[in-house]
């Protein structure tokens, strides 16, 4: 890093807690006396969202209750997603699946459409990331969930197959309010961004949002981060995650170079 790490960490935290890039720029100047170009802050967001997201997906093993709630919400993407009939605004779908007990966001998915194949991907991502299958998944009343769920879990023996429960009464255990509140958190974060520029940058920044939600931001109802509730010992947020992800990447790069040299010599 050309800038001290604590400045980068502060910038990431400010942005994912709700400030725009330019507001983050002003706060770094006023609070830390660091004059940083807004384009530099944006590069931090893209670089470390991608780096850390890849690391936690591959290396972390959250222990969840396996009672998962899933729902999707429409978000604005200026140069991607689905074009409205008036041709003025583009939208995409952001899918989120959250664990009932730990509030860990077990999987997310960004898509331009809402069909069976895209619905199936959120189930596939959740199983891949957590390395376990759910006991029960709670969803809303959309018919696409049945076919997508069967597409992913059909090969599992009936006695061990997860249960799909469609949302019922507002006060019942099968309510999907947990994930709907999560959508509210996401929308609060998206307001200062005034819409995402493209599906590519949207995917990267939303990955960063997921990291911040799971590993950095303490959940008000459980008084700890969802990662800590899921048994993951991350106590220093972005700073610790960047260190560990950078070290892991350096090891992977060194191993790739070693293998390349062996191949050349052979």
Classified by CATH, the class of the largest domain is Alpha Beta
Strand segment tally: 7
Classified in CATH, the superfamily of the largest domain is: Ribonuclease H-like superfamily/Ribonuclease H
What's the helical proportion of residues?
A: 40-55%
- The overall number of domains is 2
Please describe the biggest sheet, giving its number of strands, its sense, and whether it closes into a barrel.
Answer: 7 strands, mixed
Shape: globular
Our estimate of the beta-strand percent is: 15-25%
State the separation between the terminal residues, measured CA to CA. Answer: 36 Å
Nearest-integer average pLDDT: 84
Radius of gyration equals 20 Å
Global structural class: alpha/beta
CATH topology of the largest domain: Nucleotidyltransferase, domain 5
The topology string of helices and strands comes to HHHEEEEHEHEHEHHH
CATH architecture of the largest domain: 2-Layer Sandwich
Q: Helix segment count?
A: 9
Uncertain runs are none
List keywords for this structure.
alpha/beta; 7 strands; 2 domains; Nucleotidyltransferase, domain 5
